């Protein structure tokens, strides 16, 4: 996620917290916005960093990158808004984001198909177990490695794998795909 | 299209926020993380000194000094009190007489005035204030944080805040003039409001020798507008006699200090009380 030439977050957490915010806040905000919407993200990104500041002593000094740790804090805050997240996912089915005003006839059919898929997808996401959804989104959308997700959520790597496997199985089944037990980890970046 | 691709695409609908979008969150975070240093310091010590002011004059029954320096003879009361005392003056005259019987301890510049307050909610706040203002003190503000109170080193170009004034008079009338002059310097006015406000701050901010404190008590009895109020409770619920005045623009009296009516010991104020006051040799040393 970062090169070795960049400053060490463990040091910055103590010496220059503004730099920590500037480096990571856009990604944490986007993660929160993806799950809870922009307006809630505006509030929770501040909560995330305030929590990080208050708990900075708990950040392991042998870690250079604070982002997985920040994702963990943000995920705990998302957990306090589970109902909002599920409501938002179900709303997605009715109101797709950003309809393309320039679409023409050739795209209509494709859009209808995509929209239908999207509805199924968001419905399936809303039905996932909370912990399974956390892992899926951190791995797939935020591109964390299994080890980073394990550290962020304070769970074993094996649990990350099993949650991801279960989440994918549920999504595949909902999307009408092939046997959900096959090739469960294809296409997923992992550590 | 597999489920991973679909989930990724769903995520791509949300872009990174602009710096403008993050500005409010950043400001909120940095307000807690790194408030301007000078403001933070002044806020902290404004809080502490407000607590000190609220606590009023310390109990005269102080713990023994840790390292008393050579003790010159205590200056005695230099002036007889006014022939006809008002009730408040008579009461404070008795308190002054009691104060005069305390040990006369002259602080060294490198010592600290140790204060322990009990706030209205039962919490304790402590402070170690440098006697000559040139040594780093230590204290706790209402956020519960302990921090250094920076001393002003010689030649540093800062303002020295000493916590003992050897120029403080031992004569009641001279003390009134000294109070008015000091209130004008600190608060820009020598009105009753300003003088009583100043009284609140110096009563704990300064270490006083017995004659100085006695003169202070007697001087208050000479100030028009100060009166006695009975049945006042300090922050711990201890009932006593309040020395009060009516702030300008208000109709109710406000007690600045509460005394034990039998022993004339200072109890505190309605908001706060002094648990201990002493001279100590180093910060974090308790009497």
TrEMBL record, chain A:
Protein's UniProt keywords contain Transcription: yes
Record-annotated RNA polymerase sigma factor 70 region 4 type domain positions: 120-169
Gene3D superfamilies cross-referenced by the UniProt entry: 1.10.1740.10, Winged helix-like DNA-binding domain superfamily/Winged helix DNA-binding domain
Domain RNA polymerase sigma-70 region, residue spans: 21-87
Domain of life: Bacteria
Keyword Endoplasmic reticulum recorded: no
Coiled-coil blocks: none
Gene Ontology molecular functions: DNA binding; sigma factor activity
UniProt cross-references to SUPFAM superfamilies, sorted A to Z: Sigma2 domain of RNA polymerase sigma factors, Sigma3 and sigma4 domains of RNA polymerase sigma factors
Alphabetized UniProt keyword annotations: Sigma factor, Transcription, Transcription regulation
GO biological process: DNA-templated transcription initiation
InterPro entries tied to this protein: RNA_pol_sigma-70-like, RNA_pol_sigma-70_dom, RNA_pol_sigma70_r2, RNA_pol_sigma70_r4_t2, RNA_pol_sigma_r2, RNA_pol_sigma_r3/r4-like, WH-like_DNA-bd_sf
NCBIfam families in the record: sigma70-ECF
Family note: Belongs to the sigma-70 factor family. ECF subfamily.
Protein name as it appears in the record: RNA polymerase sigma-70 factor (ECF subfamily)
UniProt organism field: Actinoplanes italicus
Automatic annotation (TrEMBL), chain B:
Record field: transmembrane: 45-66
InterPro entries hit by this protein: CU044_5270-like
Key words, A-Z: Membrane, Transmembrane, Transmembrane helix
NCBIfam families: CU044_5270_fam
Designated name of the protein: Uncharacterized protein
